Amino acid sequence: MNNLNISLIGVPMDLGQNRRGVDMGPSAIRYAGVVERLQEIGHTVTDEGNIQIAAAEKTASPDTNLKNLKEVTDASTALANKIHDVMENGQFPLILGGDHSIAIGTLAGLGDRYENLGVIWYDAHADLNTGETSPSGNIHGMPLAVSIGLGHEKLVNIRGFAPKIKPENVVIIGARSIDPGERELIKEKGIKVFTMHDIDKLGMTEVMNSAMSYLKDRNVDGLHLSLDLDGIDPIYTPGVGTPVPGGISYRESHLAMEMLFTSDMVTSAEFVEVNPILDEKNKTADVAVALMGSLFGEKLL
Question: Which residues carry out catalysis?
């Protein structure tokens, strides 16, 4: 991951959930100096601007309980096409959210570039709900389910193929809020999960080594990092829409990113759920940029 050509793609999406403000996440991350930080490390950064997000329609679709289905589908399709084009040009896609529903488009754009893509889902939540199991109808709780081929057909079939990833190629790290339907799906599909209990018991070094060994044993030909800032304890990242106390520490997260850099496995990444309205002096965006620094090879010495 040295001297990369990075394409920065903003997705100002706030329609996958109910709390406004996360659409300003890409701007907050840019304001926190992400371009300059990555350039100082030695990478070439092209800011591709933002995917355009349509305003939500006031009337819900009568055939589903999913909120803003059309708008999320359209935005996900546009993002998927953009990522596909960026990778055609040999760029490393780095996506800035926006709520976590954007991962639907990200993985749709990556899915036909790899035969056996691996995913690290760094998150307090599993995001494995469907319309049948979701207590809210918010699509930001569904992107991982959609990407393994479960959920509404309009989301599942973006770019004309499904599934985008294999469930056995997913590792969830930092989970501490899992709905009953998600719990059953994890067991059914054999999805690898390291909860906060595992991190506390084993330590982050062992968790990351185990995660990467697991994915290497699966012979993945690419690795996508999907990092939700609510995976980190909210004392460090107050500006997230669904904070859950007792999360991964700031230092543990830096260690995880440093280990991913050293592994040289990561081929794409996204950082999501930065909400400046809920934040304290852009603290959460600053954490996001600092973690990107570690992921892309920033060194103390």
Answer: 100, 123, 125, 127, 140, 228, 230, 273
